[in-house]
């Protein structure tokens, strides 16, 4: 396992799937890990390229793996989908992520800090509140004039 160069990590709620290859592209590791064992697994590996599908929790895992010396890249989900070879499951996702992260023309998502994530979350909340707020009428008579007769 010491010759792993690229890893695809599929994130789920409690069980993560790891797919690792060496320089020749041969599968070296294919394993399920529980949430509590992910960091211990990566601490035992030498520095390598780790690909993760971008989502809100992937930024946390990217920061943790970067702190342990790995080169982490986040991929948008729509760029990983073409690399799936079979049905959608965590093992196939991890393999597709591992394949996609090595492509030279792939575009990546920058890793966000906790502060950046909280700003984005607050912005989303404000947009939702604005969508739910009813539109005010300028005058009470205006609403009655512009309302079709069948609604009265």
Mean pLDDT: 86
Can you tell me the CATH architecture?
Answer: 2-Layer Sandwich
What's the number of domains? 1
The CATH class, by name, is: Alpha Beta
Shape: elongated
Multimerization status: single chain
| Biggest beta sheet summary | 5 strands, mixed
Distance between termini?
74 Å
Order of helices and strands: EEEHEHEHHHH
Roughly what fraction of the amino acids lie in strands? 15-25%
- CATH 4th-level superfamily: YqgF/RNase H-like domain
Q: Can you describe what's shown?
A:
With 152 residues, the protein is of the alpha/beta class. The protein has one domain (1-152): Nucleotidyltransferase, domain 5, CATH 3.30.420.140. It is 39% helix and 20% strand. It has helices spanning 38-43, 56-67, 77-80, 90-101, 114-132, 140-146; strands at residues 6-10, 15-21, 27-34, 49-53, 71-75. The chain has a five-stranded mixed β-sheet. A hairpin with a 4-residue loop joins strand 1 and strand 2. The longest helix has 19 residues, at 114-132. It is elongated, with a radius of gyration of 23 Å.
């Amino acid at each position: 396992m010491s010759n792993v160069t690229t890893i695809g990590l599929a994130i789920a709620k409690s069980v993560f799937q790891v797919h690792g290859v060496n320089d020749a592209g041969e599968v070296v590791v294919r394993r399920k890990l529980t949430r509590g064992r992910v960091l211990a697994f990566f601490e035992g590996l030498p520095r390598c390229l780790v690909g993760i599908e971008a989502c809100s929790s992937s930024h946390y895992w990217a920061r943790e793996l970067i702190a342990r010396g790995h080169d982490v890249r986040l991929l948008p989900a729509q760029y990983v989908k073409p690399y799936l070879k079979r049905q959608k499951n965590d093992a196939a996702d991890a393999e597709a992520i591992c394949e996609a992260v090595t492509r030279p023309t792939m575009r990546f998502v920058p890793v966000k800090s906790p502060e950046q994530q909280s700003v984005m979350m607050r912005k989303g909340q404000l947009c939702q509140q604005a969508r739910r707020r009813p539109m005010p009428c300028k005058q009470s008579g205006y609403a009655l004039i512009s309302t079709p007769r069948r609604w009265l």
